[in-house]
């Protein structure tokens, strides 16, 4: 079981001030990793840091707008300045505007693609440069979605971005394999989590009858149920896994 051990590893989690990213950051910290919380929400990000550090972990906050290349480069540099290395990069920051495609504004499309796809690439690229410099490989993990493999009404730009993430994972995994850098994604299904910008504009929430019909496990997942898959992909237990999209969806995409 020691192959699952990530004690002492340094991990960055983008979008970790709330929701899924927060749960993953806390989970990685509980597993022994040193955590960098990267987000634009400083107050909430510092709260995540406090939770981790109060529990005996080691965490810092670095303000990061993933759509800004200089911010992404600065994130990596500050991480290395503080911890001396980077082992795990979790690209998680995300946003969406849930509305019919016919009324989606150009600015809304651009925002989603910039955060959910371009931002992932920029963070991964900056992280890979550092990992290559270190010469010992690393693990880059992206938060995909069932929306990357199935169509979802009201989420045209989001599904395009997540489909792009899946292809990005595959391409980067091939390019960076020679450096020992593994690139994978986990793809959540219905999770009890509210994404940025979807608090007011949301698809109708599924009732139990709908969940029973579309999800074999007959329920939504919890953010904490994404932690173990991420630890697995980050650890040596997944040393021969790269370019993979790990579905964490209660069986939704198996139907």
From TrEMBL:
MF term (GO), any: oxidoreductase activity, acting on the CH-OH group of donors, NAD or NADP as acceptor
Gene3D superfamilies: NAD(P)-binding Rossmann-like Domain
Keyword Transmembrane helix: no
Iron-sulfur found in the keyword field: no
Superkingdom field: Bacteria
Pfam families documented for this protein: adh_short_C2 (PF13561)
SUPFAM superfamilies: NAD(P)-binding Rossmann-fold domains
InterPro entries: NAD(P)-bd_dom_sf, Sc_DH/Rdtase_CS, SDR_fam
Keywords tagged on the record: Oxidoreductase
The family this protein is said to belong to: Belongs to the short-chain dehydrogenases/reductases (SDR) family.
NCBIfam families for this protein: PRK07231.1 (NF005559)
Name assigned to this protein: SDR family oxidoreductase
Lineage: Bacteria, Bacillati, Cyanobacteriota, Cyanophyceae, Nostocales
């Amino acid at each position: 079981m020691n192959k699952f051990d990530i004690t002492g590893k340094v991990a960055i989690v983008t979008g970790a001030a709330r929701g899924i990213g927060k749960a993953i950051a806390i989970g990685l910290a509980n597993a022994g990793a040193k955590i960098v919380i990267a987000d634009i929400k400083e107050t909430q990000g510092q709260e995540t840091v406090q939770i981790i550090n109060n529990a005996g972990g080691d965490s810092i906050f670095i303000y990061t707008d993933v759509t800004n290349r200089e911010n992404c480069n600065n994130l990596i540099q500050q991480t290395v300045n503080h911890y001396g290395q980077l082992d795990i990069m979790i690209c998680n920051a995300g946003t969406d505007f849930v509305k019919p495609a016919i009324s989606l504004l150009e600015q809304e499309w651009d925002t989603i693609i910039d955060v959910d796809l371009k931002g992932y690439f920029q963070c991964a690229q900056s992280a890979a440069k550092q990992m290559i410099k270190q010469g010992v490989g690393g693990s880059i993990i992206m938060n995909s979605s069932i929306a990357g493999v199935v169509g979802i009404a009201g989420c045209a730009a989001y599904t395009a971005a997540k489909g792009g993430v899946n292809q990005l994972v595959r391409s980067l995994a091939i390019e960076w394999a020679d450096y020992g850098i593994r690139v994978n994604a986990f793809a959540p299904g219905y999770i009890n989590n509210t994404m940025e910008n979807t608090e007011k504009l949301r698809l109708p929430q599924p009732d139990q009858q709908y969940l029973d019909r579309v999800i074999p496990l007959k329920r939504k997942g919890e953010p904490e149920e994404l932690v173990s898959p991420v630890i697995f992909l980050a650890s040596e237990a997944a040393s021969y896994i790269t370019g993979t999209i790990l579905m964490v969806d209660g069986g939704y995409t198996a139907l």
